[in-house]
Structure prediction request, 339 residues.
Amino acid sequence: MIRTLNGSKSLRLRRFLVITLFLVFIPHPLRAQTPVVPEQQPLRVATDAVKINVSVMGNSGDFIAGLERKNFRVLDNGAEQPVTFFTSTDAPAQILVMVETSPAVYLIQNEHITAAFALVQGLANDDQVALVTYSQEPHAVLAFTADKTALTSALEQLQYTLGMGQLNFFDSVSTVLDWIAPLPGKKALVLLTTGLDSSPPPRWDALVQKLRSQDIVIFPVALGGSLRRPLDKKKKLGAPANESMLSFQDADRALFALADMTGGNAFFPMTPKEFFPVYHEIAAALRHQYLLGIAPAHDGKFHPLSVQVLDDAGQPVPKEGKNSVYRVFARQGYSAPGP
Prediction:
């Protein structure tokens, strides 16, 4: 256990140790080979409706209740689509928590582990949780269970990698998606990660294709605290720029994109105390959702979707800026069935 010291000297030493471990323990991307992500078949959307789970959160991070069908508009490639099905649901969720256990994370583990009970407390009794760790590849630690104390206990006993090893973030997410895809009902993936990937090259495009064919919400929680610089919101979307994602800027861009395309939200806590409201918001978003349905196209193409919240006058509520009231989280699209 590394004790927390006081003062600016301790902070500089801590940053130096973390950066050093990133450089020492993550090898050159070409040293190891990683398995190729298998080609995925497009999601076969039911012929009657495309299901869209929508979370509407206030600026305080709480779920906005009481909205009706008339308060939603769904755009398919910019064209409005009639909402054929609508309900407000508090259905149980299945939440898989995946934790990075690389050498650098070992130094900052207390930042997120000690606050994990905030996520547990926010979940409902019938929600189920599971735990997976990853560095080179994912390892199942705790199977899905309604016993929330089992998650906190398992988190406290995590084993971290302290030697040389590949950091395969994208491949690990892809593998875990395959594990939980067959499960029925509402599913979510909470990622406690630096977002760094040293696989040769990163499997970003394959991961995006897989996410487009599945209905799993992702909530990335970035680890690294003050080592990360806030990413310009105008530059947050899109694929990572470098072939080797050993930069926090590319990692941040990827975490934002994973959340946006699946209808989740990405969080970047800078201090240990900021993990508490993060976990609270994730729990609220998982528990309370609106379920919308639209008629699918039949052209075999990917269809980008946008969900708007409307006021009583039928006008879109601002999502950004000082006049924003709601934040809307919904999947970015679906793969349509063929003709």
